[in-house]
């Protein structure tokens, strides 16, 4: 089953002014995605699913409702989304999730999406000074308190954190909190797109980013509860496969369908690595189908860039055949050095995890069993 993820920007309006936010230019804009754009998106899902199935791909679809702060919108907006999905998506499975900062969110909207069994992601950085309200008040403690109340009420959520200098020394300790209250954790190092002076102030050296992930690995190993941490689990998977061997064959010339698409408020569509880059806009869902976009020149340009990255980065990489090459499709994962684009953090992190496992004396037979489980999955 191939999961296709639609990250839908329902509105850029937000009640926070996070220092690193890549939407910082539009956080005061109250425009929301119009109903006709939503209709065009949902009406195209069955067609796109049939297009993928004709190519031997069995899809399932995931809608991630994003912003800005999407839960500032009234519950009637989400009720209409649910009605349109039920009416227009008939032949393929789909799920919904909302990414929220939980700071001053509309309580009725939050209650509605939870009652509809939509998944919830909560943005928490576990440090003050970077996620302030529009009035300048720090949100860290209030968001943590809101998340705790939510979990104690019986609701579940995943956590997402942006890693930078502001929380370099708090994230490993935060694992205990996350494992108690959340169901999983995604950690994104600060990347370009936000205000340049703030990005420069918050960006960590690559070695420090890797150190945080290895600290989290050790913290989790000794914790009473295990939860998934992305991308740490991807690093562990690649390191485990390398220890167990043998290397898988990699065809760098093969085309890998991007599975994450960004829908801007106006309906413009991008693949994840090229969000908001005009030259790589695939088209607008109001005037073209996703299948037409995949067959179009803009998508071919995106694939050509990804292919060049793989040739530069993956062809001679010591982890080729163990890593999935997914970093080549990630926004902000690739940096230029010595005339080539490389995923330095990923390489360093896999190497650090491998060294840690080997030095810890983990039995190779156990590692091989882990590898077989991952390969089967």
What can be said about this structure in brief?
The chain has 377 residues and is an alpha/beta fold. Helix content is 41%, strand content 17%. The longest helix is centred in the first third of the chain and has 20 residues, at 35-54.
Distance between the termini: 11 Å
Poorly predicted runs of 5 or more residues: none
Helix and strand run: EEHEHEHEEHEHEHHEHEEEHHEEHH
Tell me the strand order in the biggest sheet: 9-8-7-5-4-3-1-10-11-12
Q: Average pLDDT value?
A: 92
Describe the structure.
The chain is built from twelve helices and 14 strands. The chain has 377 residues and is of the alpha/beta class. The strands form three sheets. A ten-stranded mixed sheet has the order 9-8-7-5-4-3-1-10-11-12. A two-stranded antiparallel sheet has the order 2-6. Strands 13-14 form a two-stranded antiparallel sheet. Helix 8 (232-244) packs across helix 12 (364-376). The model has no long low-confidence stretch (mean pLDDT 92).
Could you outline the blueprint of secondary structure elements for this entry?
Layout: E1 2-9, E2 16-18, H1 35-54, E3 59-66, H2 75-88, E4 94-100, H3 107-115, E5 119-123, E6 131-133, H4 140-152, E7 158-163, H5 171-181, E8 184-189, H6 196-202, H7 206-221, E9 228-230, H8 232-244, E10 260-263, E11 268-271, E12 283-284, H9 290-294, H10 297-313, E13 335-337, E14 340-342, H11 344-359, H12 364-376
Parallel strand pairs: 1-3, 1-10, 3-4, 4-5, 5-7, 7-8, 8-9
Antiparallel strand pairs: 2-6, 10-11, 11-12, 13-14
């Amino acid at each position: 089953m191939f999961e296709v993820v639609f990250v839908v920007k329902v509105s850029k309006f937000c009640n926070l002014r996070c220092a690193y936010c890549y939407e910082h230019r539009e956080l005061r804009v109250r425009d929301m995605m119009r109903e006709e754009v939503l209709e065009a998106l949902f009406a195209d899902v069955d067609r796109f699913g049939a297009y993928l199935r004709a190519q031997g791909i069995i899809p399932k679809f995931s809608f991630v409702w994003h912003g800005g702060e999407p839960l500032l919108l009234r519950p009637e907006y989400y009720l209409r989304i649910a009605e349109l999905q039920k009416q227009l998506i008939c032949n393929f499975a789909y799920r919904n999730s909302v990414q929220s900062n939980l700071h001053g969110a509309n309580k009725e909207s939050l209650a509605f999406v939870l009652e509809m069994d939509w998944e919830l992601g909560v943005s928490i950085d576990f440090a003050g000074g970077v996620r302030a309200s529009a009035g300048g008040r720090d949100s860290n403690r209030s968001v943590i308190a809101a998340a705790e109340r939510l979990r104690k009420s019986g609701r579940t959520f995943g956590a997402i954190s942006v890693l930078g200098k502001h929380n370099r020394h708090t994230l490993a300790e935060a694992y205990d909190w996350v494992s108690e209250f959340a169901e999983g954790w995604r950690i994104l190092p600060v990347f370009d797109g936000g205000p340049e002076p703030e990005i420069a102030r918050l960006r960590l050296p690559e070695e420090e980013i890797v150190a945080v992930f290895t600290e989290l690995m050790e913290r989790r190993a000794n914790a009473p509860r295990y939860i998934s941490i992305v991308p740490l689990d991807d690093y562990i998977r690649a390191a485990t496969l390398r220890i167990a061997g043998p290397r898988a064959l990699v065809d760098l010339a093969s085309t890998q369908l991007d599975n994450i698409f960004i829908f801007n408020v106006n309906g413009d569509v991008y693949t994840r690595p090229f969000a908001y880059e005009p030259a790589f806009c695939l088209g607008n869902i109001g005037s073209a189908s996703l299948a037409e976009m995949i067959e179009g020149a803009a998508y071919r340009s995106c694939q050509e860039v990804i292919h060049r990255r793989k040739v530069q980065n993956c062809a001679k990489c010591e982890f080729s055949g163990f890593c999935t090459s997914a970093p080549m499709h990630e926004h902000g994962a690739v940096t230029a050095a010595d005339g080539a684009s490389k995923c330095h953090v990923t390489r360093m992190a896999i190497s650090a995890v491998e060294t840690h496992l080997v030095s810890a004396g983990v039995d190779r037979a156990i590692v091989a069993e882990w590898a077989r489980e991952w390969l089967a999955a």
